[in-house]
Design brief:
Elements lengths: L25 H18 L5 E6 L4 E4 L1 H7 L11 H5 L1 H16 L4 E9 L3 E12 L8 E8 L1 H16 L3 E6 L4 E4 L2 H6 L3 H6 L8 H15 L4 E9 L5 E11 L4 E8 L1 H15 L9 H18 L3 E8 L2 H8 L1 H18 L5 E6 L2 E7 L3 H17 L2 E3 L2 E3 L3 E7 L7 H17 L5 E3 L1
Helix pairs in contact: 11-12, 12-13
Length: 438
């Protein structure tokens, strides 16, 4: 292991004494002495082990760090050959071939685990640097040995953490390609590492999330840290997973370091909680509170843009009689089937909810009075055609409907709901199975 250049503090290499070095001319000798003096200044305080060897591979200089690590006096090393100091195995495998390259004029570098006397097994980074006068073959080689065992061990620890982490760890280039990925990516998305690295990672993001993802990526390129950003990725089996990102840019290296996590189950739970908080558990329609929130927002929008708006109240006729005759389970099925029919008949942009019992409400967006009347008539006709089979017989139903339109004085959704409810009351009072417009 070619080791160490001590610019022997307090001693001068024999080759540097006198007026000639191996027959070099005085000018060349002076240049060489200047270069050696430069090295001497560099190594005086370095923790690296540095040595200088001549063409006979004999140590001419070793620094204090070299002596400290080898636990030797300088006189015990100066004049010894590299083979004598480092041993046959290291000399043949490491020192000899790299010294040959250096004496040929090429700087050589090697990293390896080596068993060093007095030091034990260490991971060393060794540089063999030719030292020569201008335009002359190298007469010396400076050998710099750096002990990077702690760094190597840290890298090994990092790799172990990288490999076993349940989180998805990655390094990506600024131009959008994965450079490093841990196995959690394959476990989560199903794609092999080479498949993930083959194209830009944005291609795995579902189309509806790409605009927000590109905006987030632009923030990273500006040096901003990204915490808690979430988007959806395509898995190899065609499924979709929600991924949460904490990403940190390195502007100098032009890389992004990221920790990502599969939050699909959390998203599903949140969605279920949201559904439970906003929908009627029996029918799946919006519950009263959520319906009023959505209706109020739509009223504000309609007033701002001057667009028409209709509010409808619907009541199942003689529902108590259905429960008494066919049982409550049958009554529940009637409500579920009634809601399914309403949702299929109304537009997806319309708002529909259960107000309680057998009473329901709808907000018809962008609907003129004529359109609203047609919608209500079509809905009543479809509901009247429904047949619900039960163990006690077949059930048919009719509904009563109250309808009102947004007008200039209306400032709140409560005013429209009250007016529609009054119209519904009149429809029921007039004999049910009819519609009244207020």
């Amino acid at each position: 292991m070619a080791i160490m250049v001590n610019f022997g503090m307090g001693k001068t290499a024999p080759e540097l004494r006198g007026t000639s070095i191996h027959g070099l001319k005085m000018t060349e000798q002076h240049l060489l002495q200047e270069e050696l003096a430069h090295y001497k200044q560099i190594v005086s305080s370095t923790p690296d082990m540095i040595s200088l060897v001549n063409r006979d591979l004999v140590y001419q200089i070793v620094n204090d760090a070299y002596l400290k690590n080898y636990k030797k006096q300088r006189d015990e090393l100066i004049g010894k050959t590299v083979r004598e100091v480092v041993g046959d195995e290291i000399f043949e495998r490491i020192s000899k071939p790299n010294l040959q390259r250096a004496f040929a004029g090429e700087t050589a570098y090697v990293e390896d685990w080596l068993m060093v006397p007095e030091m034990g097994r260490r991971y060393l980074a060794i540089t063999f640097h030719p030292v020569r006068a201008k335009n002359e073959p190298p007469e010396y080689v400076a050998i710099n040995v750096r002990d990077i065992t702690p760094l190597k061990q840290a890298e090994a620890d990092r790799q172990r953490i990288f490999d076993v982490s349940l989180d998805m760890l990655c390094v990506a280039s600024f131009d959008g390609y994965f450079e490093e990925l841990n196995p959690a990516w394959t476990r989560t998305l199903g794609w092999k590492e080479e498949e993930l690295k083959a194209g830009k990672w944005i291609d795995l993001v579902i189309a509806s999330d790409r605009e927000a993802t590109q905006a987030a990526h632009a923030r990273l390129l500006r040096g901003e840290t990204l915490v808690g950003f979430e988007n959806r990725f395509r898995c190899k089996d065609g499924s979709i997973k929600w991924i949460s990102w904490n990403s940190f840019p390195d502007l100098e290296k032009r890389q992004v370091f990221a920790v990502a996590r599969d939050v699909t189950e959390r998203r599903k739970l949140e969605e279920e909680l949201r559904r439970l908080a906003t929908t009627d558990p029996l029918t799946g329609a919006n519950n009263r509170r959520h319906f009023i929130e959505q209706a109020a927002a739509e009223l504000t929008r309609s007033r701002r843009y001057g667009s028409p708006l209709a509010v409808v109240m619907i009541d199942v006729d003689h529902f108590k009689r259905i429960n008494d005759t066919y049982g409550h389970d049958a009554g529940d099925e009637v409500l579920r089937r009634m809601v399914d029919c309403c949702l299929q008949t109304l537009r997806s942009s319309d708002i529909f909810g259960r107000f309680g019992g057998e009473e329901f409400a709808a907000v018809l967006q962008e609907s003129s009075q004529e359109t609203a009347l047609q919608t209500c008539a079509r809905l009543a006709k479809k509901l009247a055609k429904m047949k619900i089979r039960t163990p006690r017989g077949e059930i048919s139903l009719t509904v009563s409907i109250g309808l009102t339109m947004l007008s200039g004085p209306d400032q709140s959704i409560d005013a429209l709901l009250k007016r529609a409810d009054n119209a519904l009351y009149e429809a029921k009072k007039a004999g049910r199975n009819r519609m009244v417009l207020h």
